Automatic annotation (TrEMBL):
Coiled-coil features, chain-numbered ranges: none
Pfam family name, one: AAA_10
Protein's name according to its UniProt entry: ATP/GTP-binding protein
Domain of life per record: Bacteria
InterPro entries in UniProt: P-loop_NTPase (IPR027417), T4SS_component (IPR051162)
């Protein structure tokens, strides 16, 4: 209780100068009721330069993302990991993202398309719309003079050729080359490059040299010629698969003339290759090194390398190491690597767990679509997601995902324009049910809002290189 003198002093001061302090009685309430006192707030966005992805679910703000604009300020690396079960919108996101990025003049995209229907890859319609012919790697078509990529193409440096040959062999064998086998391969490759000058060397030349090594190669190391031949036998058998086995025709000849590496979009159609066979990681290795030495150049272009079914890369230690080097090298030259994966457990529990962890660490952007609760918890632990984000991942509906951009976590609804819709949903006619049709009718109002967003996109894209796309 206040003393009488203080009360008298306050009363006299109030009489002379008016009331100077308002006294309020304390209020007792719960935290649930008290939170209504605070005005709603929204986390800051990622800026207004880049491509429109959609809108933030909680604030309703437009969500704009571009790794090249954010790199160095909000992103330590421009690489991106997309996770989620089938049917939740991963492919739709990647396709619209590429289409919107290509509206900038300084963008170029390579897609490794491992899925498809009716004999063509999933990206075939988009390639056609842009007037681009996909590079379709098909063993059967290759036998009829189809597309070929030569691992010994002169456009690839000698060091790159040898590294690629080693990777192919190690992927096929499932273990690293020992010193003796590596020596046999090195001398065969060196001899072929030195003696064949009137045409492109091809894998057949390497196989032939491994089977019949030159005496000089044995004398240089003071070993018997039969030893050198024995050391190279396993190597020759692996490479023979690319020459006369189930992968023949795609890599055993000069690179096909007319492959346009300057096109804004380059699509490698791998849909004719068995995704569960050893052929897929071998293909990934060849394409990866071939692109590294022929596509990535210091010409100030911003490049996007998008890989569907990327667990084929990250699940093989030797291919993962190759792509890890590509990511480190490409970052200096403006390369954004985008890996699309169904389940994180496919890679973190695989044979290349160490390499997978290194690649995941370089992906500063992570987009997670709906997953089962146990998978979501595992994903949250590996990626370090906040608890609230992990809890809502199993409840996400198609088209909505959790975006984690270097710790800036938002829930984002992906918006698709009517112009993009027929290019994105290539199997809509085959998969749409009556329930889907009813759902479309219920969302007519939302489509109208999407159209307004589309109009905004079209208005701001133009030919600009720096405004919002």
């Amino acid at each position: 209780m206040r003393d009488p003198l203080s009360v008298l002093t306050d009363a006299f001061t109030s009489f002379l100068f008016g009331k100077v302090e308002t006294t309020r009685l304390p209020v007792r309430t719960s935290t649930g009721q008290a939170q209504a006192v605070y005005l709603p707030t929204a986390a800051p966005g990622l800026g207004d330069s880049g491509v429109i992805i959609g809108r933030e679910v909680y604030s309703g703000k437009g969500y704009i993302y571009d790794p090249f604009q954010l790199y160095g300020q909000q992103l330590p690396a421009p690489h991106w990991l997309v996770l989620g079960e089938s049917g939740n919108g991963k492919s739709a996101l990647e396709k619209t993202y590429v289409l919107r990025q290509l509206r900038f003049r300084d963008r170029q995209v390579v897609v490794l398309d491992a899925q498809g229907e009716d004999g063509v890859g999933e990206w075939n319609l988009i390639a056609q719309e842009l007037g681009i012919t996909p590079i379709r790697l098909d063993p059967m078509a290759a036998l009829d003079m189809g597309i070929r990529l030569n691992p010994l193409d002169p456009a690839i440096t000698t060091t790159g050729q040898l590294a690629l040959l080693r990777t192919i062999i190690e992927v096929a064998l499932g273990h690293g080359l020992d010193e003796r086998s590596g020596f046999a391969l090195k001398v065969a490759h060196a001899y072929v490059n030195e003696t064949i000058v009137d045409r492109q060397p091809v894998l057949t030349d390497i196989v032939e040299q491994l089977r019949h090594p030159e005496p000089e190669s044995a004398e240089a190391m003071n070993v018997a010629i039969d030893d050198v031949r024995a050391w190279g036998l396993d190597v020759a058998l692996v490479l023979d698969r690319l020459v006369d086995g189930d992968l023949r025709g795609m890599f055993d000849g000069p690179t096909t003339v007319g492959i346009d590496l300057d096109a804004p979009l380059i699509v490698f159609d791998l849909s004719h290759i068995d995704r569960n066979s050893i052929a897929m990681p071998i293909l990934m290795a060849i394409v990866g090194v071939w692109l590294e030495h022929t596509w990535i150049r210091p010409d100030r272009k911003k490049r996007i390398f998008l890989v569907e079914e990327a667990w084929h890369i990250i699940n093989s230690p030797f291919v993962a190491q190759l792509f890890q080097r590509l990511l480190k090298f490409g970052r200096r030259l403006g390369l954004s690597f985008v890996a699309v994966v169904h389940h994180l457990s496919d890679v973190v529990d695989g044979a290349a767990a160490k390499e997978a962890a290194a690649i995941l660490k370089m992906a500063s952007t992570r987009t997670i679509y709906a997953q089962k609760a146990d998978e979501a918890r595992a994903t949250g632990r590996v990626l370090g997601l906040p608890r609230w984000a992990v809890e809502i991942i199993p409840t996400l509906t198609p088209g909505i995902a959790v975006w984690d951009v270097n710790g800036n976590v938002q829930v984002v609804k992906h918006l698709i324009t009517e112009t993009e819709r027929p290019l994105v949903f290539t199997d809509r006619a085959m998969t749409q049910s009556s329930a889907d049709l009813a759902d479309d009718a219920l969302h007519a109002a939302e489509l109208e809002a999407e159209e307004r967003a589309a109009a905004f996109v079209e208005h701001h894209l133009g030919d600009s290189e720096s405004t919002v796309a």
